[in-house]
């Protein structure tokens, strides 16, 4: 699962950069050629299994575009946005690898987590510590789902439900 997430990060970056480089923005053609060459090198490194080099090249592209002052170039997403985008990309890959029953189980847990978390987040009168616990437990559950570990995800869901009961919120 971890490999799928890492592959998804690169796939997302490759798609973003390809889209940008294929667009006609009128920006410095020399810099765009250099970026296109770096993207090709990153793709080749990834194809050869050298993911560390591929990631370094993608980071170099963000830096190069920023230093060149390209206003329409992609900007490197923050950690939360990058994780969210990688998970979105990984979902397609997981669908091909995981058995149907496991996927359905994970989807069901995700729905319960989403509903319970949303109800808790909108509950009036929760103190800051409880809200922080809700975010932490939700994040742990999300990681468990990302790693296709239904037992851990269910355990975190039960923790959220316990908070909901304690706060008189319907789970």
Features:
mainly alpha; single chain; 171 residues
What this model shows, in words?
It is a single chain. With 171 residues, this protein is mainly alpha-helical. Helices cover 79% and strands 0% of the residues. The protein is built from seven helices and no strands. Helix 2 (29-47) runs antiparallel to helix 3 (51-68), helix 5 packs antiparallel against helix 6 (128-146) and helix 6 packs antiparallel against helix 7. The longest helix has 22 residues, at 100-121. It is elongated, with a radius of gyration of 20 Å. The two termini are 29 Å apart. The mean pLDDT is 89.
Break the fold down into its secondary structure elements and pairings.
Layout: H1 2-22, H2 29-47, H3 51-68, H4 79-97, H5 100-121, H6 128-146, H7 150-166
Helix pairs in contact: 1-2, 1-3, 1-4, 2-3, 5-6, 5-7, 6-7
Summarize the structure.
The protein has helices spanning 2-22, 29-47, 51-68, 79-97, 100-121, 128-146, 150-166.
Coarse shape: elongated
If you compute it from the alpha carbons, what radius of gyration comes out, rounded to the nearest whole angstrom?
A: 20 Å
Write down the overall mean pLDDT: 89
**How many E strands?**
0
Distance between the termini: 29 Å
Binned, the helix content reads over 70%
Oligomer: single chain
Number of helices: 7
What fraction of residues sit in β-strands? under 5%
Report the sheet with the most strands, covering strand number, pairing sense and barrel closure: none
What structural class results from the helix and strand content? mainly alpha
Order of helices and strands: HHHHHHH
Q: Return residue spans where pLDDT drops below 50 for at least 5 consecutive residues.
A: none
């Amino acid at each position: 699962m971890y490999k799928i997430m890492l592959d998804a990060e690169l796939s997302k970056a490759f798609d973003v950069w390809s889209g940008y480089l294929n667009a006609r923005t009128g920006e410095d053609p020399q810099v765009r050629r250099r970026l296109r060459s770096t993207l090709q090198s990153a793709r080749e490194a990834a194809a050869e299994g050298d993911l560390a080099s591929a990631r370094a090249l993608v980071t170099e592209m963000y830096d190069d575009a920023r230093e060149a002052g390209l206003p329409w170039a992609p900007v490197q997403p923050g950690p939360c946005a990058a994780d969210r985008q990688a998970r979105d990309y990984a979902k397609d890959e997981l669908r091909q690898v995981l058995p149907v029953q496991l996927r359905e189980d994970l989807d069901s847990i995700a729905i319960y987590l989403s509903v319970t978390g949303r109800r808790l987040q909108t509950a009036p009168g929760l103190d800051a510590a409880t809200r922080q616990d809700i975010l932490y437990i939700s994040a742990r559950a999300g990681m468990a789902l990302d790693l296709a570990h239904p037992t851990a995800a269910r355990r975190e869901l039960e923790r959220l439900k316990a908070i909901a009961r304690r706060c008189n919120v319907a789970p």
